Amino acid sequence: MPVFKTPFNGYSVKFSPFYEDRLAVATAQNFGILGNGRLHVLSLSPNPSQPFTEIAAYDTADGVYDVAWSESHDSLLVAAVADGSVKLYDTALPPTSNPIRSLREHTREVHSADYNPLRRDSFLTSSWDDTVKLWTLDRPSSLRTFKEHSYCVYSAVWNPRHADVFASASGDCTLRVWDVREPSSTMVFPPHELEVLTCDWNKYDDCIIATASVDKSIKVWDVRSFRVPIAVMNGHGYAVRKVRFSPHVRNLMVSCSYDMTVCVWDFMVEDALVSRYDHHTEFAVGVDMSVLVEGLMASTGWDELVYVWQHGTDPRAP
Amino acid sequence: MAKRSDSSRGTVHTLAQYYSPDPSKPKRPIPEVGLHHLPDLIKRGRARHKLLPKEVGFDMSWQITLIQISTTPYSFTYITRTEAPRLGPWTKRQHARCVVVDTQIELFNLCTSKSCNRMAHRRKQQLRTSMATQSPTQNQNQGAESAEPAANVDQQGATEEPVKQSSTPLVFVNSEPMREEQVQNAVKFLSHPKVKGSPVMYRRSFLERKGLTKEEIDEAFRRVPDSAPTVQTGGVTQDGQVKSSSNIQQQAQPQALQPGLSASAGVNTSSATLSRSRFHWSHALIAIGVLAASGAGTAIVVKNSILPRLKSWIRKVVIEEDDEELKKLNRKPTLVEEAAQAAKSAAAAAADVAKASQDMLISKEEEKKLFVEVVSLLDKQVQEMKSMTNALRRIEVQEDLRVTQTNTKQLIVNGKADYDLHSVRSTSPPVSYEPPSSLHPKSYMEIMNMVQRGEKPSNTRPWEVSQVQNSSTQVPYAQGNGEYLNSKVQDSTQSNGDGDDALPWWQRRNVRIREIGNEAEYNGNGSSYGAASNQPPPQRTWVPPQPPPIAMAEAAEAIRRPKPAAQKDQMSDTQSVGNSSDVSDEVTRIPRRSESEGAVKGGSSSSIPSTVEIQEDQELRRE
């Protein structure tokens, strides 16, 4: 299975929605504390001796915490940079003209970026300045700012079925569901007692959302009845950093955690843990499942490695 | 009945067409009964929409301006306009409970004015009759709204897409009825005096964390009469925040006594000072009088008693001098000898003085020499710094030539250059301080400590428009980075290293070559680059906000240990963290650390949240 070594510590990995062999990796120097960052665009090749081809690599002044592929253009990327800027990159353009845009509105680190899969023209960025901002590609300034959280917003994720609904997970231990048409959040509830680090919508059921927190658990909720979770999945040894639902299997989800493992869960089953991969030697902070290839997963961590493997196989096997 | 098909997106503006808040504007009559022109806002009773009084006004016989409408029990608040001609003086912010039936609102229990109640009653009856004629499934209970929208969606028969778009977000709304118990608890919380001093944001977020829905929170805020945050002394409010967020009912009371005492003490002292200040004038007058009297008394006493004594003493002295003079005449020859001896001793003393002065001169000369040396060293440093600034300026010039996002980077570079000029720090000590910094892999904790000390990790390039080839990242990643974790990690890094050697792909080889080349480069540049990189990073002026102390206190609650969470000394904590050799503690601290990266990044002054969380996490683990 191909492994790519990034010069900096990895933060996030995303598969391209257009090309099944392409992925983007967001990395930051010095574990993201201080230093430069780099955004890699990699391509998988069937050649076993040369599994990864680096299509492009963009340096940034500060660490890149997250990356999102555009749904409208196959070569556009949105990078969430730790100095508060949101940078747009176009891999089709030469590196000297990249980034094509640098949007500076957040006052603190931008922690996540997510592109609207339905409308295809807008994207969200969430930041440690307690806000979530909505942008479109053509405008130089944000369309809307959603400021209701009282602490860092760690993730904002669009609903895959409703074009105007998104959820935001924040360090103030609440999850908010927003509708872009509404002036304020439509739902707020506390999924965990501790900070909620990540959330993701189920791709098949539009009301199911999964949240994961510092309390090492992953909970799956139905937003219609948010008092009691549908499932609680314990098993990680430390805080869970990222959760992603599978685009191919209804109940499957993958999570990565500070206990250096990537776990795959099936929340409808009694014993939810399907498989556990501990290929990383440092915090595993980024994980993604490919939309185009069933079962293909990628993960990255602070050990500066990016693994891409098929579910069920060993990521470290050559 | 309002047609749902013509309802546009639920914005305030569509409503403003019908309702003009400005009394001077012509008012359009509401075509039908009730407040039913809120279809998009109400969304069949499920949405909560906040309308600003300026934007929306109702032109109804009530002349109510709708502020807020919420779900079951569908209470809303409104401000009534005082200039309502027909209905007399109004009180503001009346509370009305209503039920949303389809898109109509039945108002009942309105304000206190009799005429208002009459209107309400009339409307009620109208609505009831109109409702009775409509579908019988509609009921006015609180829990029935789930059935209604479904039925109404079918009845409306609008096109699918707008219905979908307008109906599906209904799902993403808190649709359960307000829990009175929760609201009452919230009211108790908000009425607490310490809570009153805290920002509204913190109160809201605390209630949200407790699981209250927005409606419940808004209801609680409505019920508490003066929930606006008052500006009190900062220290008290901080204490209040921390303490109010803990168990309100249990711990707040003993803790409230203390701040209460302190507050009352403050009040007392202030009143005492006030009283003192008032007393000052009269007190001053009295003091002056007393002083004058005492002065006069002492003068009299002195005149009467002391002066005679002085005189007698003087006479005695004079007599003695006379005696001495007689005696001196006898001692003349001995005086000469004494004078000679005195002269010799004086000469000796003078010699000593001369020696001392010579020593002084010598030492001064030595000091001057040292001073000259120091000055020369400083000159050298200044020259080095100048050379560095020149180098940086050259880099800047290079930047200008390239087309990139110049502004931010130049600022960073300029900031660093300015710091070069102004910093007095010499290049040598930091380098000797961190000898392995450029060569050994940095662990996470090392980097954090460096940052907190104010130094920058040496592998960070001042931002250039460097391409992939130029980026000389000094992270020697051959060994892997997992050094701050346990031996387990070390084993795995060794195996990882082997694995790296085994993988025969070009990426790794290139990367290694680059690294070696960069190291050579780095060593060649030597001190200048080391100096540049060893300066503290451009200070981030933004200090991250403290997380709501509610969070910390809640964690404390979870741990069930009373702690003065917000008042820990920052530096001691971070140092203890840095110096701790207990690896397991480090491991446990990491999750918290990483989540509070942002706080640490802001500089050492902002490490309160991180340290507190770390501490809490530690304690959690130890439990």
From TrEMBL, chain A:
It is found in: Cytoplasm, Cytosol; Peroxisome matrix. CDD domains: WD40. Gene3D superfamilies: YVTN repeat-like/Quinoprotein amine dehydrogenase. One of its GO terms (molecular function) is peroxisome matrix targeting signal-2 binding. The keyword Signal does not apply. It comes from the Eukaryota. WD repeats lie at residues 103-145, 146-188, 189-225, 233-275. Residues 152-265 form the EIPR1-like beta-propeller domain. InterPro entries: Beta-prop_EIPR1-like, PEX7, WD40/YVTN_repeat-like_dom_sf, WD40_PAC1, WD40_repeat_CS, WD40_repeat_dom_sf, WD40_rpt. One of its GO terms (cellular component) is peroxisomal matrix. Keywords: Cytoplasm, Peroxisome, Protein transport, Repeat, Transport, WD repeat. Transmembrane segments: none annotated. GO terms for biological process: protein import into peroxisome matrix. It holds the Pfam family Beta-prop_EIPR1. PROSITE patterns: WD_REPEATS_1, WD_REPEATS_2, WD_REPEATS_REGION. Receptor required for the peroxisomal import of proteins containing a C-terminal PTS2-type peroxisomal targeting signal. Specifically binds to cargo proteins containing a PTS2 peroxisomal targeting signal in the cytosol. Cargo protein-binding triggers interaction with PEX5 and formation of a ternary complex composed of PEX5 and PEX7 along with PTS2-containing cargo proteins, which is tranlocated into peroxisomes by passing through the PEX13-PEX14 docking complex. Belongs to the WD repeat peroxin-7 family. This is Peroxin-7.
Automatic annotation (TrEMBL), chain B:
One of its GO terms (molecular function) is signaling receptor binding. Residues 249-259 have a biased composition (Low complexity). Pfam families: PEX14-like_2nd, Pex14_N. InterPro entries: PEX14 (IPR025655), PEX14-like_M_plants (IPR054154), Pex14_N (IPR006785), WH-like_DNA-bd_sf (IPR036388). Residues 127-144, 153-169, 229-248, 459-476, 524-534, 572-582, 603-613 have a biased composition (Polar residues). The keyword Membrane applies. Keywords: Membrane, Peroxisome, Protein transport, Translocation, Transmembrane, Transmembrane helix, Transport. It comes from the Eukaryota. This is Peroxisomal membrane protein PEX14. It comes from Arachis hypogaea.
